Amino acid sequence: MGTAIVTGATGFVGGQLCRRLIEDNWNVVGIGRSKKNVAECLRRSTNFTFVQHDLSTGTCCAEEIPENCEVFYHLAWSGLGESNATQSRLMDIGNYYSAFFAASLAQERLARRFVFAGSDYQLMRSYDPGVPRRAVRDSYGAAKQACSDICREILLDSDTLFASSLMGLVFGPGDFSNRSINTFIRALVDGRELKLMPYDYMVDMVYIDDVCGGLIALADSGLRQCEYHIGNLQVPCFGVFLERMREALGSVSTLSFGEYCSSTFIDYSAIDLDALERDTGYICDSDFGSAVRMTRDWLISCDKQLPTTR
Predict the structure, then answer these.
(1) Which of 40, 233, 251, 257 has the most CB atoms less than 10 A away?
(2) Rounded to an integer, what distance in angstroms lies between the CA atom of residue 24 and that of residue 146?
(3) How far apart are CA 241 and CA 246, in angstroms?
(4) What 3-state class would DSSP assign to 59?
């Protein structure tokens, strides 16, 4: 197929994207901070080359990156889940540098396309009428938006086509974190009560296979300087997702909605949810129940304390 560059190749989405590209016969150059975190399936592949560099330091040697690659995916991110606000902001400075150097590297090495991996949290808004409508009310979302803008500006008049993605809560095998969906699945398998956000809170959940397919479709057919949501064409509310998850797992857990409240919301009216299908023909079509069960089975294989049957 050609050559793809993937930053954040040792992370969840980056690693799974590398695997998918290799399955599709791409040559993949993965950039990451530590070779020890490269997935075994990537180590074994003759179509995968790992370049160990921390982009936030700007020390990546351009000569190690092939010229004229078809696509440069920027997925590297530091500090997700960092509970200390000051530490999180300090890590975001590194993310800004990483975005700057990634886009500059793509431009220098004459990449044909550049895809930035963003988040639905860039659409986070405040219920407070005194706050400007378009102000991003989430530190993670604001940092993602800033990095997207950095890359967009660098590549604005470049021969490298820039496009960006927005993604909700991504889940699936390969995610070793304790992010929300893994936590929900573990609790549902155990039959524990879940204390949750309000039922009608809006947040998308998208399976990793759909995300990888969407990123590939966006790189292939996305329009210059456009932003695409990778997820459901009609985003169900949080409560619907949790009920489907409980049903898929045959769980007896109580879902206690409204135990936690939020002064913010994700404004899905601010993004064209149909754009990815219209411009690329791609639709996220994984069956949610099957995706949840596959994720459960993978978690069980990683965590022997989880019961194997319910």
Answers:
(1) 251
(2) 32
(3) 9
(4) coil
- Give pLDDT tens digits for 257-299: 999 998 899 999 999 999 999 999 999 999 999 999 999 999 9
Longest dimension (CA), the chain: 56
C-alpha distance from residue 180 to each of 168, 172, 186, 259 (Å) = 12, 12, 10, 15
This model's pTM is above 0.90: yes
Domain 3-171+204-233+266-286 has CATH 3.30.470.20: no
Pick from 22, 44, 298: nearest CA to 171: 298
Question: Do residues 71 and 117 touch, judged by C-beta distance below 8 A?
Answer: no
Q: Which secondary structure element, helix H or strand E, spans residue 32, and what is its range?
A: strand 27-32
Q: What is the pLDDT of residues 48-84, one digit of tens each?
A: 999 998 888 876 678 889 999 999 999 999 875 545 6
- Are the C-beta atoms of residues 189 and 179 closer than 8 Å to each other? no
Domain boundaries, the chain: 3-171+204-233+266-286
Among 123, 149, 127, CA closest to 138: 123
The 10 Å Cβ neighbour count of residue 266 is 24
Amino acid at 81: G
Amino acid letter, 215: L
Residue-level length of the chain: 310
